[in-house]
Amino acid sequence: MRLLHTSDWHLGRAFHRVNMLGAQAEFIGHLVTTVREHAVDALVVSGDVYDRAVPPLAAVELFDDALHRLADLGVPTVMISGNHDSARRLGVGAGLIDRAGIHLRTEPSAVATPVVLPDAHGDVAFYGLPYLEPALVRDEFTVEKAGHEAVLAAAMDRVRADLATRARGTRSVVLAHAFVTGGQASDSERDITVGGVAAVPAGVFDGVDYVALGHLHGCQTITERVRYSGSPLAYSFSEADHRKSMWLVDLDADGRVTAEPVDCPVPRPLARVRGTLDDLLADPSLARHEDAWVEATLTDPVRPADPMARLAERFPHTLSLVFAPERAQDDPQVSYARRLAGRSDQQIAQDFVAHVRGAGPDPRETAVLREAFDAARADATVREVAR
User: Which Pfam families does the record associate with it (predicted)?
Assistant: First the structure.
């Protein structure tokens, strides 16, 4: 069976101030063409269809158009909700849409109810694990500790139990939306840390033939059987070096996997340039970036006059301007933001405690801080879903 694995469409999302709906529509057209021209047997979409729980109308219309075009192809599609989606909204009408060959899996209670598709070698069972927010699904999976690994392990136990009841030789595909250990993150993904931990080990998914992951925006291979497709479009300058693609996966009669990337259309290349303003305007080696979307980091010790206007004369698509004067780290003018770069909320809070009283938090206090951050994030998730 030939699968096309994609995820993280983020319909409705902009890139800085650029409306990406046209590029997203171009991607949908490319997706439909790929399904048709590569004789794909099933399409899997591993979450974050939308960029937020209540997407703009134009994004909903684009998704509706995608569903109709995929249904017209007669190629089954299996799709799960991600952490940016409202599972309830995405899943509306799932029973009816199912009849058109579009299988939406948004309910945690249905993780062990696969979409079973036959080919010449027998059945392939597709299990959809929507994004499982630990605080919201701990009762469903009866786990003692609400963490990503615990709820995903419990969900996979249900998957393996169902798979064991099926005919010998049944192959299996799992769709999941999670941060798996070994994956490389970017600035585009929303933080899903719980209890100080965001990642789960790939071993959680043992026992199935292919795991189609979503959440991380870079196309990457965790193991030969566990892969991220990544987002089809870049949504931050941290993705400047990404190769935006989908996985074309062949699953043979014995469940062996072969996969090759299929490139996605690039609306405009990304470039990150760094230096003094005068150097950026004069450096001939930067000519190749003059038609790119540009993030410019200026290292001038004193902020120059009209930097964006001057940059735009050479780089008309400059979208982001960062000031990072080259000073010694102990210079009092080093910005607060630079001192905090790369540090988690938990680490910042612990540093604040140490600054205020002269000693960092003890293990009990560290646990209290972690619980507070987890509760705040879970509350924000509940309010987002309820909108």
Answer: Metallophos, SbcD_C
